[in-house]
């Protein structure tokens, strides 16, 4: 029995409220089973909202609904027909609910993915710096044990080419290097950097 036509609802608080109203309009407060696809991360907030409201929710792997759609007479791939296929799987009890990770597991997964993206972005930035720095100042490679360290990056922010560095006052350069390295480098390192710029 179809109680309502499929409709699009936003994945936010207002949309969740609309879903709740639709469920209440059915007049059935018990024995309601809600099905949804585990598509990306979009389903999790709605799943959390509905379970907190006391509803039973079955999360389905998109592969299940795709297989059900293949068996249908009308082979359509739209949100409207996806909703129908999900409802049909629940109606016929021909589904296997996916394991829903805990909130902690979801948070850890998101943090891990974020870290991966940040590390990947950092590697790309380093490649870009190398591609620009080496042609302009090949001798820079041996000045610091880590050219992406604090002292080196502070120096490059101030002078990224030999020409720019030679225009700096030697005393100011010594102070910059000494301060950025927290006292580890002094005048000797300044002379090393200046000589590198002169020979470049």
From TrEMBL:
GO terms for molecular function: DNA binding; transposase activity. Residues 7-133 form the Transposase IS110-like N-terminal domain. GO terms for biological process: DNA transposition. This is Transposase IS110-like N-terminal domain-containing protein. It comes from marine sediment metagenome.
């Amino acid at each position: 029995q179809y109680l309502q036509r499929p409709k699009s609802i936003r994945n936010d608080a207002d949309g969740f409220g609309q879903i709740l109203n639709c469920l209440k309009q059915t007049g059935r407060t018990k024995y309601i089973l809600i099905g949804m696809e585990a598509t990306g991360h979009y389903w999790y907030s709605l799943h959390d909202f509905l379970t907190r409201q006391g509803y039973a929710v079955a999360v389905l792997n998109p592969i299940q609904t795709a297989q059900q759609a293949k068996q249908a007479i009308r082979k359509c791939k739209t949100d409207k027909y996806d909703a129908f296929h999900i409802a049909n799987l629940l109606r016929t009890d021909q589904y296997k609910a996916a394991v829903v990770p805990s909130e902690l597991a979801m948070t850890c997964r998101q943090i891990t993915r974020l870290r991966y993206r940040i590390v990947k972005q950092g590697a790309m930035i380093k490649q870009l710096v190398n591609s620009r720095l080496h042609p302009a100042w090949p001798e820079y490679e041996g000045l610091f044990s880590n050219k992406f360290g604090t002292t080196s990056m502070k120096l490059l922010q101030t002078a990224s080419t030999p020409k720019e560095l030679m225009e700096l006052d030697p005393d100011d350069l010594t102070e910059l290097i000494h301060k950025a390295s927290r006292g580890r480098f002094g005048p000797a390192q300044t002379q090393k950097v200046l000589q590198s710029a002169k020979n470049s």
